[in-house]
User: What shape does this take?
Amino acid sequence: MTRTRNPDSESESESKPSSSSSSSTGMKLIVPLQGVVQGRGGILLGSLIPCALFYFLQLYLKKRRRSNHNNHSSNPPSPSSSFPELPRTPSRSNLSSRGSITRARLSRLASTISDDDSAYYVGLNRASRDPYHKFSNPDGIIQLGLSDNTLSLDLIGDWMQKWGSGGGDDDLSINGIATYQAFDGVDELKLAMADFMRQVMGRSVHFDTSNMVLTAGATPAIEILSFCLADPGNAFLVPTPYYPGFDRDVRWRPGVDLIPVHCRSADNFNLSMTALEQAYAQARKRGVKVRGILVSNPSNPVGNMLTQDMLYNLIDFAEDKNIHLIVDEVFAGSRYGSEKFVSVAEILDSDSEYIDNRRIHIIYGLSKDLALAGFRVGVIYSFDRNVLAAARKLCRFSSISAPTQRLVTSMLSDKRFIQDYFETNRNRMRQVHDEFVDALSKLGIKCAKSSGGMFCWADMSGLIKPYSEKGELELWEKFMSIAKINITPGSACHCIEPGWFRICFTTMSLEEIPLVIERIRRVVEVCKSSS
Assistant: This one.
């Protein structure tokens, strides 16, 4: 069977040598040939020969279009035209003047973080937009939700003014700060940090610099350890109430879940091994792989401390379950009470022959004990060689700046200053803490017993109605709007009992306590009048 060819179609193809018309013409030639060849030479030749003919036809048409284009470009431009004609790009014809109807998609991580409405972050943001100042903004929000220590900043300022300019110190010369440094911390700072930690946690404790990785604060230190110890979907057990930032440090990027181990006010929120066992068993029943225990010592937010017996129990538990133990000791030097502080490093030193120290990891930093939150200096202390090797590579994303490392090295090496700072800072913390707790008690607000940290863990359950998380958040909103004070509600710390609030007392001076108490009184009176 033969096919006739339309003369009109041929003339259109010759006058408009576009790719679509070329393809159409080629196929008209090839289809009958394919039928002929398939009839005689079989399927293989019937496929290859038409494809080859089609390829050569396309090559011929392409050369023909290029020749026509060269002839056109060789003609002189018209004198009436001031500018050469710009070639039209196909993409421009696809642009819509109205723009895209739907928004470009974001990652799951970005969507999750941007929608985080924890009262902890909401309060910090609201206070930062309307900060209290004695003269410029006396009606602003007083920030008592952030764990800053401003009680002894004058001591830091005096040292900086005297020694911080660098002088003739070679370490602070341009060669020591402008070039690349070790991303996991320079050796000089590690040596100074090891000596400082020994002074803070007990002079009998030895810290080996080869077990150290320095990071830009304790936050990335916890995050890096989470990356090293667990996979996304795994979990850590965490006694409650716990620091709200753990959710950010462990969950956001590493994707590790936190399983609360609920502690209660009847035990001053001390950890119970029974509760720990139950939380672990329930997680295993749900199919969750528990990779470690995360604890803070002293506790944030309660301020109580882990006893030596409890630390031994946690180590035994970790070994029995074949999991890790992470101890956050960033408040180790911020002590003011009668309880004795015991670092897990002290236990590892004394019983190193009987404990697998590779599963024990310590977090430390200078944001709390030395009030250098803005300097961003943190420490991972571990005995596991693989963890240390991985952490050294991961800390490339959160290394401490070279000028900061050199400056902090000089400060930590000034033994007289460090000794005077700790003595003065602890006295000031004790004085403000006792004064503030006493003033709260006169308003009918009791605080949990504490010996370390920067917080009062205050029981305001008598002011909430209904007795639930909803009532707690409504009371928090009254503090924000009526008292103009930002404090952290217990629900943000995953406290199982409604009505507890974390109040940072190290951000106010003795002279500011009456102002804070007067503002709290407003809320107390409003709550009592409405009950």
Notes: The radius of gyration is 35 Å. The chain has a mean pLDDT of 86. The first helix runs from residue 7 to 15. DSSP finds 18 helices and 13 strands in the chain.
